Amino acid sequence: MGVQHFWPLQPEAEAPASAAPHAALPVSAVSVSVPVPVPVPVPVPVPVPAAGGLVSASSAVAQALPERPATSAPARPPMAPARPGGVNAPAARTATAAPVTLGARPAGIESMDWATLRDTVSGCQACGLCKGRRQTVFGVGHTRARWMLVGEAPGEQEDRLGEPFVGRAGQLLDRMLTSVGLTRAEDEAERQVYIANVIKCRPPGNRNPLPEEVAQCEPYLLRQLALVQPRLILAMGRFAVQSLLKSSEPIGRLRGRVHDYHGVPLVVTYHPAYLLRNPADKALAWDDLCLARELAQSAP
Ligand code: SF4
């Protein structure tokens, strides 16, 4: 099953202007299949307001840890070392400096069911991104999917339609899923994926979300992860990857290995919008999908 059959490598038209710039930022195409020791940045807790008082981002995350026990990744692909530290190290951030407006985060996210979680997100005003959204983009897919895909933040079309990965990038994602026997359409948990973003509201001008906004929104993603209990996470795009792994390294140096996100094996790959502009890297994305499929098939 060759990659060419499913994803023609010839250049495709440029992604529409509505595609989020943070979803199409150039990244290194260098593939490093052997883990490389990297400097470990110093963790910097980000104070954020929450119901009942100030909490740090790290404590908020700890409160929302998934319920499922840690999943052991297969021994063959080496697990990358944990990377504590700032979500957006200075070298990785391109967002313009702007005043950060934070509100109270709803309490009890870590114990919410699907309906309550969805309603809570739709009314969330825990950061300033709520002011510019048409609607929140919660997530779609099988609530017990084996594969959980995590993207970055809603772009213009996602904000309008309320669904992640739409437009030409979404169509390419659909072809990528089909190539490994998966779908976002209604199906059994073995084949239907669950898709969510790190950030649920569209940043103005499609800028990169600020670290304080990521910290405010991450408990929702963690609760989705705890409810789905996937066998693996496929993190797509530089911003999503760096946010989840708390790393400033480019995707080219993070892909090809198995990482860990709160006990769930995580595989890194390029965002479909990036692949539309850089079709030569579809071969690398195919390798990433094959690694993810191997993990999913070998997980208990
Ligand atoms: S981005 Fe997340 S934390 Fe901010 S308002 Fe939207 S749902 Fe709430």
TrEMBL record:
<keyword id="KW-0411">Iron-sulfur</keyword>
<dbReference type="InterPro" id="IPR051536">
    <property type="entry name" value="UDG_Type-4/5"/>
</dbReference>
<keyword id="KW-0234">DNA repair</keyword>
<keyword id="KW-0378">Hydrolase</keyword>
<keyword id="KW-0479">Metal-binding</keyword>
<keyword id="KW-0408">Iron</keyword>
<feature type="domain" description="Uracil-DNA glycosylase-like">
    <location>
        <begin position="138"/>
        <end position="290"/>
    </location>
</feature>
<dbReference type="GO" id="GO:0006281">
    <property type="term" value="P:DNA repair"/>
</dbReference>
<dbReference type="GO" id="GO:0004844">
    <property type="term" value="F:uracil DNA N-glycosylase activity"/>
</dbReference>
<dbReference type="InterPro" id="IPR005122">
    <property type="entry name" value="Uracil-DNA_glycosylase-like"/>
</dbReference>
<comment type="similarity">
    <text>Belongs to the uracil-DNA glycosylase (UDG) superfamily. Type 4 (UDGa) family.</text>
</comment>
<keyword id="KW-0004">4Fe-4S</keyword>
<dbReference type="Pfam" id="PF03167">
    <property type="entry name" value="UDG"/>
</dbReference>
<dbReference type="GO" id="GO:0051539">
    <property type="term" value="F:4 iron, 4 sulfur cluster binding"/>
</dbReference>
<dbReference type="GO" id="GO:0046872">
    <property type="term" value="F:metal ion binding"/>
</dbReference>
<feature type="region of interest" description="Disordered">
    <location>
        <begin position="66"/>
        <end position="91"/>
    </location>
</feature>
<dbReference type="InterPro" id="IPR005273">
    <property type="entry name" value="Ura-DNA_glyco_family4"/>
</dbReference>
<dbReference type="InterPro" id="IPR036895">
    <property type="entry name" value="Uracil-DNA_glycosylase-like_sf"/>
</dbReference>
<keyword id="KW-0227">DNA damage</keyword>
<protein>
    <recommendedName>
        <fullName>Type-4 uracil-DNA glycosylase</fullName>
        <ecNumber>3.2.2.27</ecNumber>
    </recommendedName>
</protein>
